[in-house]
Amino acid sequence: MQKMKKTVSMVLAGDSFITQRLPRDAKLAALKNYLERFDVRFTNFEILLHDFEVFPAPVSGGTWACARPAVLQDLQYLGFNLYTWANNHTIDWNLGGILTTKKHLDAAGVVHAGCGINLEEAAQPRYLDLPQGRVAIIGVTSTMNEWGMASNPRRDVLGRPGANVLRYQTVHKVRPKELDTLRKIVDQTEVNADRMLLEKEGFNKPLTGGYLIGKIRFEATGRGEKPGTVTTMNKKDADRIVRSIEEAKRQADFVFVSHHSHERKGMAKNRPADFCRDFAKLCIDAGASAYIGHGPHIWRGVEIYKDKPVFYSLGDFIFQNDSVERQPTEFYDLYDLGPDNTVADGLDARSANGTRGLAVDHFVFESALASFTLADGTIREVDLQPLSLGFKNGRSLRGRPELADAKYGEQILADIANLSKEYGTAIQIADGKGKIVI
């Protein structure tokens, strides 16, 4: 019997940091009409859902990300049917925030991946069943506080709710002579006393082949090796994710990996860290049809690896970071504000009255939807539809997505094309749209 060919169309949106409702106007309707042309509609859900009945964590992923559960209705109105939510905000409202968000996502009947009541569930592929075939999504984050990592149960201890985390190791390579100088400088102080005592008492493992200052690792360069910083994947985590991909390959027709990562190359936010590039290729090698990156709130370049698209960051789809309803005491403490101050006061202090930070970076509010058709596992081209998130609209309206006009769209696409040149990817731009031919 001849095997039936499977074809599915997919559109990818970046981070949905949605904290307020989206008015149902003509611009939103046009966006909805565009999205609903595709079978699969993906976004990374970078918010926690609750009615402030949960306790905040003492630190956050930058903002204590939260919204009333009703915001999910707007993403469903737009047609999104595939979500991940493993990211640096997953633990902003402690375990309670994870559990309430899971409750509301489950109640809405959406397919979501990347977090769960333990690591087994967080790492599990989740499936969207369509007439055209079955689509699997695996959610991963690397930017995450340690206590936001899910863990598996033992026979005698419960597992921990949290995110499916890909950890990584950072090694700073310096010349041997300079490493000796560094040791001598550190030995003149007590800066490393905690580390040394913990090693002596058996609570930390001593490092061979390098030098640790706290958790910062240094190694001497080898012959012909240049100084610099190298990041590598945690093998245990990478192996677990590969097993999830291999499982999904047997259970679904199409497999995608979503990876949230703020990690970068040096100070360049628009360039992924070394381990992200390695991980993306590992996912493709294991059987993923595409690697879907997001996290830094700006676009990063697109690479084509083994005829599969690697999106290092899709930027933002919705970014309402400056319209959160409430924040905990620790937020106000950051800016020396007191109990009588309001969220608006804190946001003014953080942005120095709108003169610094993400609110003044126009790249944060310029994005694109990426779409393609998979025919029996093959992708021939990727289309890019530019988005404007209203950079000039002021705090109350900024962050809402709309289809960009042709002139503005070509400007946005030119920036994405420039970022993609590093990876040998050419983007054709015409009439306000972009195309990558594979």
UniProtKB/TrEMBL annotation:
Give start and end of each Capsule synthesis protein CapA domain: 9-321
User: CDD domains from the xrefs?
Assistant: MPP_CapA (cd07381)
Name the domain of life this protein comes from.
Answer: Bacteria
Q: Name one Pfam family in it.
A: PGA_cap
The record, for InterPro entries, names: Capsule_synth_CapA (IPR019079), CW_Biosynth-Accessory (IPR052169), Metallo-depent_PP-like (IPR029052)
- Family per UniProt? Belongs to the CapA family.
Would you tell me the protein name for this molecule? Poly-gamma-glutamate synthesis protein (Capsule biosynthesis protein)
